[in-house]
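We modelled the chain as a single entity of 200 amino acids. Its sequence is:
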Amino acid sequence: MASLGDLDLLSLVGYEGGGGLELIFASSAVLGGILFLLWFALIMIGGITADVFDGLFGTDFDAMGADASFKALTFQGIMAFMMFFGLAGLWVLDGDSNQTSLAIVVGSITGFGSMYGTGKLFQLFVALQSDGTIDMDDAIGSVGTIYLRIPEGGVGQIQVESGSALRTYNAKTDDGQAMATGDFAEVIDVVSSTLIVKRK
């Protein structure tokens, strides 16, 4: 029965022994691949990546923020470069072991291409990311309907379109008068998370 000790990581990427350059390519591919898989596993678990960086570097690392995404981009870009540099270099040397210069050039181009692709992928993720924050000021000028009766001098609720969706907010009338459920009202101001409305 094979044990974990029998596992030769370098052979997994196609290294069959040879010159020093082949060993460098194979080591680069294995190291980049292992780091990539570890990073991916930490991301999947969620939040652990931030704790790892906090512990290792003593930094305040927000794994879900846009700024953190660009920090991770650097780390992921280096991993992608190492992995693809090694794999492409080994592929060229596997075809002709005398093509060392070509292997370095192809490995470098492939590595930088993967680094660039990783960067573009992270930019796409950041662009698609939405923080879900709703700016109540967007509701000013909108007309909605009273959802929960506003008593005289008190607070009720209004349903109004804000952020391309129908939302329900606490509301008070501007003149302190009561408004019944179903009445139409226009939002004229926002005061402490409460919309100020007037009868429409």
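As a brief sanity check on the tokenised model: The chain has two domains: 8-128, 136-199. The beta strands are 143-148, 156-162, 165-173, 184-191, 194-199.
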